[in-house]
Each structure stands twice: as structure tokens, then as C-alpha cells.
Amino acid sequence: MNYISSIGSYSIMVWEVFKKPTKWSIMKSLILKEIDELIYGSMGIVIFISVFIGGVVAIQTALNLTNPLIPKDLIGFATRQSVILEFAPTFTSIIMAGKVGSYITSSIGTMRVTEQIDALEVMGVNSLNYLVFPKIIAMLFYPFVIAISMYVGIFGGLIANSLGNYSTSTEFIQGIQLDFIPFHVTYSFIKSVVFAFIIATIPSFHGYYMEGGALDVGKASTTSFVWTSVVIIITNFVLTQLLLG
Amino acid sequence: MIEVENLNKSFGDVQVLKGITTSFEKGKTNLIIGQSGSGKTVFMKCLLGLVVPDKGTISYDGRMFSKLTVKEKRNLRQDMGMVFQGSALFDSMTVEENVMFPMDMFTKQSRSEMEDRVNIVLKRVNLIDAHKKYPAEISGGMQKRVAIARAIVMNPKYLFCDEPNSGLDPNTAILIDNLIQEITKEFDIITVINSHDMNSVMEIGEKIIFLKNGIKEWEGTNKEIFKTDNKAITDFVYSSELFKKVRQMYIEERD
Fold it and tell me: What ipTM does the predicted assembly reach?
């Protein structure tokens, strides 16, 4: 029953976010601040992880190519497919659920604990619109992060391939170009938009409706990471079945 | 005037407010006192519209809150100022931005007009050099003064304060009490204060409402509180040795 109640509360929260908008001049600066915090601030960790994941995928594929009849360009092909279809959108989103999600839950949760949200409500401000809407809009730029993650991931694969001498760079690049289906990138971007909405709203929900003190802010952050990850994984399954199945 | 009629509120099986009827007049500092868990905070949240009562009505100058439209409620809220127990200043904003926030949100004033108004209210609460500081960089007493400045910046008709003295040393507490009373007189507003600080009761309690277990047990002024024979309030007020001695002196003087 608790789960059903939480889903209901979450749906109401999302509805409330889009009601009674905050003055545009204020909202504009809030959105820019969130873009800086959530998107630009995450670039470093996303690039770092993507380079190494791309490299590991290339090495793993190369080490499993024991049959001499299988062409070497498969390393580039497998790296591209793995990075574009799963590692960039899904793996990065799980990392973002930890980094960005925890930040969102703890910042909103602290505002709840210190009565800052009550202060907004007393002033007649729609606190959900003021706090959550800029995060949703900022996260619309998330596909750009995923695009960079894709590029950097494949580049990491190329470097690992060259350093390990598994195949030539030409063979790797031929593999990247082999049987390329542009819809796979579209599929990845569709997923990333949905994941962006999840990353912006589920942690906000856990922060906004939390009760208790400072210790509970930490607990809420952990719970929010778990639930954001679970919802991302289930949504990933459903979207893959719908778009590629 | 704020009129409260037969206010009831329950959370689950626990009835927190039981048929409270009272009124708060303009230009007066009204104190709601009572032990922890007596229903003071819920009562104030009902007055602010943050908690919806189960039964009863609250009227602001004849406007019944429950019958107002969403837009009317929003407009009414802009006539309210609130000083929270922990100040509730926005951490990411400077003192100036905190005070400017309600104006920035709801008025079309230019930046310079807003800055002028902020300067006036910060000067009124005796804060002159703190404009560019963040809440974490100033003391608790200064934070309370910023919260008062933010609450009065829009010229509210109703000022609510939830335990404005909590966590402050006695001298600063008296300064905050006096400031609230001066502002109440100066702007001719209705001020409602939640407190269990007996100094505040004696200093600025022009009207005192004593709550016990969600019931309005006593109502009167800070002068009448000495004369009352109501056991519940005398037990509460004279729980400290200091006030027991004060009462003894008063009785001896009277006799």
C-alpha cells in the first residue's frame, strides 16, 4: 500500500510542479544555475568514466576474439554498439542518479528540515515549481552529456585498442563505421531524455517529502539513489522492448 | 482583526486542537504560550494556511480563509510575514537577496527601488554592514533580524513569529522582543508570536493565549497573568524559581 501511495504522491508532485509558474526573470537564473550545477558540473566524472568504460569494452572484446576467422574490426563495432546502446545512456544515468540525485535530495531535504520550503509556501510561492521545475528544464540538456559520453567512450576504446595493439586504428575505425544504424543514436537519446526526467524528479520527491532531521537527509539521499536506479533499470527494459523489440 | 472560531485539528487518532475560539487585534503583540506538544505550532500553521483545520473557521479582516479562491489566498499570503524558529533564510542567497526575495518574486519594482527598500528595512532591524554576507556567516541573533526584515519588507498586515527567541542569549532575546513590539506599533499590524519564553510573555504579551493539550485554557494580558487563579497557567508560568519569587513579591506588595 505504501508503494501505491508513494506513486500517487509522486504523480501529484509532478502535476504541481507545472502549476502556478514562478516569475520568468527569477526562473531564468534558477535554470542557468541548475544547468551549471547538474550538467556542466557532471561533465568531469562522465568523461572520466566513459573513457575507461569504452577502453574496457574494447579490451574485453579483443581478448575474447580468439578465432582468427573473425575480422579485427569487430572490436570497434562491439565498442560502438555497447557504448551507444547501453553504456553511455544507462550506465552514465546510474552514475548521475548517484551524483546528481544525491545532490538534489540533500539540497531539497535540507531546505525542508530548515523550514525554507515552509518559508516559500508562506510567501505564496509554489515551492515545487520554484525548486523542481528548473531541475527538470536543466536536465533536458542531459542528451548532450550522453552525446559526449558516447564520443569519449568510443575514443577511449580506440586508445585502449591502440595501446594494447589488439588491431590497427584503421580496423577499429572501420568497425565503428560498420553497419551503422542512426536510429540507435535516436533510441539512446530518447532513453536519456526519459532518464533525465527520472533523475530530476525522483530525488526531488524524496527530498521534498522527507521528514525528520539531518540524519534523515542522508537516509533520504540513499533511498532516492536506490529508487532512481531501480526505476531507470525498469524503464530501460521497457523502452528497449518498445523501441527495438 | 484575525478571528478564529471553534478550530479543531486531528492527526490520525490524536486531536491536537480542540475547539479554539479567539481573536487577534491590530497593533497588538499576541502571544500563544503553552508547553511543548500543547498544539501551538499546529495552531500557527492553521493560521498561516499551511495546515487545513478539520473544523472551524479563520477570518482575516472579515475574509474567511477557507472560502477564498486560490488567487485570493495567494494575495492574502502576500499580506503575511513569518519569522520561523530557525530563521529559515535561504542558504544560497546573501542577506540582501534574502530580504529582497519577496519583492523580487511579487513586485515589478526596479533593482534600485528594491535595494532602497532593503536598506530601509535592514536599517530598521539594526543591520547595516551585513548586506553581502551569507546566513552562515552571521550570528543567530543577526539571522533572526534578517528574518524579521524579510517578513516586514512587503509591509505585511499580519506578522507571525514562531519562537523568535529560541537559541538566543537573554540580551539578544530582549532586543528581538522589543524590535517585534516596536514594528507592531510602527506599522500597526497584527503580530502573533508562539513562545514559551516567560520573559517575552512579561515584556511584550499584550494578549496571551495559553494552550494546554489543544484546549485554550486561559486568555488575558501580561498584567492579568499575575492575578489569575487558573492552576494550569500558574503551574506553567511559575515553574521557574525566579517567577515564583516574583509572584511572591507581587502578592506581598498587594497584601
Answer: 0.82
- Cβ of A122 within 8 Å of Cβ of B105? The answer is no
Overall fold of domain B2-230:
Rossmann fold (3.40.50)
Sequence letter at residue B66: S
Concatenate the DSSP letters of all residues of A154-217 into one string: HHHHHHHHHHHTSS-HHHHHHHHHTT--HHHHHHHHHHHHHHHHHHHHHHHHHHHT--SSHHHH
Task: Tell me which chain B residues have a C-beta less than 8 angstroms from the C-beta of A25.
Answer: 104
B190-238: per-residue pLDDT in tens? 999 998 777 778 788 889 999 988 899 888 888 888 778 788 888 887 7
Residues 6+ apart with CB under 8 A from A57: A78, A79, A82, A83, A87, A153, A157
**Domain chopping of chain B, boundaries:** 2-230
> Is B94 strand, coil or helix?
coil
Query: Across the interface, do B80 and A122 touch by the CB < 8 Å criterion?
Result: yes
Q: Which residues contact A33 (CB under 8 A, 6 or more apart)?
A: A134
Q: Quote the DSSP letter at residue B219.
A: E
- Considering only CB atoms, A119 lies closest to which of B73, B74, B82, namely B82
Q: Give the count of beta carbons closer than 10 Å to the beta carbon of residue A223.
A: 16
